[in-house]
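From the methods appendix. Each design record in this collection lists the tokenized structure first, followed by the designed amino acid sequence. Records were kept in a plain field format so they could be parsed without special tools. The example shown here is representative of the layout used throughout.

RECORD:
FOLD TOKENS (178 positions):
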């Protein structure tokens, strides 16, 4: 068995990409309420702060900060993936099984990147918020409903028209108010 090396930074902030096995699927947005419910349950049982997040039809991006003394983001993702799979099966969604008899909803692994500094954090938050536009799902960031972008706007960290073509493809680079 291959052992993957992951940085174990207690209390660290990491960027993640988690993807469905079928890249044509729309499971995450079609069942976003179930995903939210599972995410809340895992977050209650094993706390972490969500810095930014976007849910697309076949994958999601998130930035989390773990509590001091805790580096187990893999266990949290395992619980989220398993929990959503169980909820979908319970709701009657027919899911394919692989050769081992396991449900074949998720790609086995996930991508993780440890956030190095404030500039790295800002770049990854912008990437998350602009991702639905990048994938051609919407023309304006504000039109994608499953994004933490809307919380950033409510908190005054971003303008409602951030990321619009008229303000440039990436919008302003400052994510926090002066």
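DESIGN:
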């Amino acid at each position: 068995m291959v052992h993957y090396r992951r940085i174990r930074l207690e209390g660290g902030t990491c960027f993640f990409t988690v993807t469905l096995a079928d890249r044509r699927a729309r499971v995450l947005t079609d069942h976003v309420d179930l995903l939210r419910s599972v995410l809340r349950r895992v977050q209650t049982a094993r706390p972490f702060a969500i810095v930014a997040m976007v849910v697309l039809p076949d994958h999601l991006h998130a930035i989390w900060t773990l509590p001091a003394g805790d580096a187990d983001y893999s266990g949290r993702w395992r619980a989220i993936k398993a929990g959503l799979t169980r909820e979908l099966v319970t709701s009657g969604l027919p899911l394919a099984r692989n050769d081992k008899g396991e449900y074949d909803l998720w790609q086995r692994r996930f991508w993780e990147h440890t956030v190095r500094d404030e500039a790295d954090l800002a770049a990854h938050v912008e990437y998350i918020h602009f991702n639905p536009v990048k994938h051609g799902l919407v023309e304006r960031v504000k039109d994608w409903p499953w994004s933490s972008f809307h919380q950033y706007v409510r908190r005054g960290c971003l303008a409602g028209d951030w990321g619009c073509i008229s303000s440039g493809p990436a919008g302003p680079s400052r994510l926090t108010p002066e």
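APPENDIX NOTE: The beta strands are 13-19, 49-55, 59-65, 111-114.
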